Amino acid sequence: MIGMLTGTCLVKGEGEIIIDVNGVGYLVQCGSKASTEISVGETICMHIETHVREQAITLYGFRTEDERSWFVHLQSVQGVGPKAALAILDILNPSQILSSASLGDKTSFAKAKGIGPKSASRIASELASKPLPKTRGLSGLNTSDLDNRLPNSNINKIENTELTLRNDAISALGNLGVGQSDALRAVARAFNIIDGVPLLDDLIKLSLKELGK
Questions:
Q1: Is 17 helix (H, G, I), strand (E, B) or coil?
Q2: β-strands 24-29, 43-52: how paired?
Q3: CATH architecture of 66-129
C-alpha cells in the first residue's frame, strides 16, 4: 500500500498529476486547488490514499496528512464519494470543514462543486455526530510535525496549527465530561471570536465560557 510519494511533478492536468519517483511515473488524482498550486518540475511530497477496485487502482494525493484523513472521513457520509470529497476540500481546508460541521453550516458545504442543498445539509449533520477523523499513526511524530518537514512544508503550517488547536481543545473538553457535539460547537464559536491563532488555554477557557461553565 502506498502511503506517500516524493518526487518531481512531470505532468499536470485538471485534477491529476504525474509524479516521477526514481524513474517511475505515478498518476495521482487530486483536487483542482492542489493541481493548480503545483508546478511542473517542482519537487513535491503527497500523502496518498489508495483505492483498489476490480477495474483499477486509483491513487489520491494530498499536501497534508490532515487533508488525506478528512478525504476519507468525508466519504463516511452517505452519498459522498471521492469526487465530492475532493470538491469539498477544494473550497474548505480541514479546519474550516470541522468548524462548518460543528456549527451546522450547510451553506459552506453547498458551495462545493456538485454538492446540492440536501447533500450539504446531510454532510453538516452527519459530520457533527461522528468521531473526529484519525490520522495515520506515526510513532514519536505527530502529523503536523511531519508535514512541516516535507518539501512543501510552508503551504499548510497555519492550517495544521489551527486544526491541531481545535482537536486538542475538543479533546480537553471531552476529558471534562462535555459531549462531543457540544464541544465541537463551543470550540468553533470560540475560535471565531478570537483574532488570529489563539493559545490552547485561551481557546479552552473561551469554549467553556460558550458552554456557560
A1: strand
A2: unpaired
A3: Orthogonal Bundle (1.10)
- The pairing of strands 57-62 and 43-52 is antiparallel
Compute the C-alpha angle 18/23/27, nearest 5°. Answer: 20
Give the model confidence (pLDDT) of 48-79 as tens digits. Answer: 999 998 888 999 999 888 999 999 999 999 99
Q: How many residues does the chain have?
A: 213
Domain coordinates of the chain in residue numbers? 4-62, 66-129, 143-210
Check: CB of residue 46 under 8 Å from CB of residue 72: no
Exposed, middle or buried, 66 (CB in 10 Å: 0-12/13-18/19+)? buried
Q: Tell me the DSSP string of 51-76.
A: EE-SS-EEEEEESSHHHHHHHHHHTT
Q: Note the pLDDT tens digit of each residue in 108-153.
A: 999 999 999 999 999 999 998 888 887 765 544 445 444 544 545 4
DSSP tag of 151 = T
Query: In 82-119, which positions are buried (b, 16+ CB within 10 angstroms) versus exposed (e)?
Result: bebbbbbbbbbbbbbbbbbbbbbbbebbbebeebeeeb
| CATH match of 4-62 with 2.40.50.140 | yes
Q: Which of 182, 171, 160, 161 minimizes the C-alpha distance to 204? A: 171
